[in-house]
Amino acid sequence: MPIRVNLDRMLLDRRMSLTELAGRIDLTLANLSILKTGKARAIRFSTLEAICQALQCQPGDILEHVED
Predict the structure, then answer these.
(1) Is residue 32 a contact partner of residue 47, using CB atoms and an 8 Å limit?
(2) Per residue in 29-44, pLDDT tens?
(3) Radius of gyration in angstroms for the set of CA atoms belonging to the chain, rounded to a whole number
(4) Which residues lie closer than 8 Å to 15 by C-beta, 6 or more apart?
(5) DSSP assignment string, 1-66
(6) DSSP class of residue 67?
(7) Residue 1: its pLDDT value, please?
């Protein structure tokens, strides 16, 4: 997949667990886990915005385009 999700790195940098993030943005742990593992096929802008607010980052810190 040419889009890499760097949620693990952002959580580690912020010393936050996936469970804590899920609670802060009101998203199920299962859905957040799918995103974190890169298995998500899409993400809503509202979800991306909530993640960025909770982690105090920019969308480009979470999503990265990589060459195949």
Answers:
(1) no
(2) 999 999 999 899 999 9
(3) 11
(4) none
(5) --EEE-HHHHHHHHT--HHHHHHHHT--HHHHHHHHTT--S---HHHHHHHHHHHT--HHHHEEE-
(6) -
(7) 57
What is the structure's pLDDT at 26? 93
Whole-number pLDDT of residue 67: 87
Per-domain residue ranges for the chain? Answer: 3-63
pTM (two decimals): 0.90
Mean pLDDT of the chain: 94
CATH class for the domain made up of 3-63: mainly alpha
